[in-house]
Structure formats: structure tokens, C-alpha cells
Design a protein that fits this description.
CATH topology of the largest domain: Oxidized Rhodanese, domain 1
Strand content: 5-15%
Radius of gyration: 18 Å
Number of strands: 5
Strand order of the largest sheet: 1-5-4-2-3
CATH superfamily of the largest domain: Rhodanese-like domain
CATH class of the largest domain: Alpha Beta
């Protein structure tokens, strides 16, 4: 008990760090947003006609993107939700550079009533590391 009282800040820091490391994924699972890898994304795209939604900025998009992806920068997503309405019943795979902005996009889409949401974990970096093609 003496150790706890003398090191309470270290214990709290470890607890917060652990939650940030593991709790974020738990939040996504509970909210209905699945983290998927590039191979699962390809499967959803080919077998379930998933929409690939690229939320990167225009300059990133111009450097290369997944074929037939729809480009809506994250900063414009809320104002362009109507453009995506016809895809509401389809799986949507959100993509960014590393998976962070696309995760945010999934949460925005979830609040707007979209249900089948997937975040490409690792984003375009993971896509490229898997050796999958991209358009320019």
C-alpha cells in the first residue's frame, strides 16, 4: 500500500497509457466500426461492392489512391454527406494515410446513420506495404 501512495502519479499514468493504447480499439468495436487490413478491404470491395472513401487531402489523393475510390476530404465530409446517401446500405471502407483521419470519418458517418463502416487500419501506408495497386 505504501508503494501505491508514493507512486500514485506513475500508476495513474500507466493506467491512462494502457487505456489509450487498448481502449481506442475497444471503443471502435463497441461503436460498430471495424478495423480491417488491406486484404479484407479487397474482399469487401470485390464481394460486397464496398465503397472505398478516401478522406485525405487533394495533394495526397493526387499522389496515388485506391482504384475507384471516392474522394471526400475529411474537412468536407460533414457538408458532403448527401453525396454518400445512396451508399448508406453498402459497406464503406474509409481510408487516409495512416488510419487516423479515416477512423474519425467513420465516427462522423456513424453519427449520420451509416451502419456498415470499416476503417483501413494503417491506411494507404498499409495498402502500399501489402503491394496492392493504386491509381494516379
Amino acid at each position: 500500500m505504501e508503494f501505491v501512495t508514493q507512486n500514485i502519479w506513475l500508476i495513474l499514468l500507466a493506467a491512462v497509457s494502457g487505456f489509450m493504447l487498448f481502449g481506442g480499439g475497444l471503443f471502435n468495436r463497441l461503436s460498430g466500426i471495424r478495423q480491417i487490413g488491406p486484404q479484407e478491404a479487397v474482399r469487401l470491395f470485390n464481394q460486397e461492392d464496398a465503397l472505398v472513401l478516401d478522406v485525405r487531402e487533394q495533394s495526397e489523393w493526387a499522389d496515388g489512391h485506391i482504384a475507384r475510390a471516392r474522394h471526400v476530404p475529411l474537412g468536407q465530409l460533414k457538408t458532403r454527406l448527401n453525396d454518400l446517401e445512396k451508399h448508406k446500405d453498402k459497406p464503406i471502407i474509409a481510408v487516409c494515410r495512416s488510419g487516423s483521419r479515416s477512423n474519425h470519418a467513420c465516427r462522423t458517418l456513424k453519427k449520420a446513420g451509416f451502419e456498415k463502416l470499416y476503417n483501413l487500419a494503417g491506411g494507404m501506408q498499409a495498402w502500399e506495404q501489402a503491394g496492392l495497386p493504386r491509381d494516379r
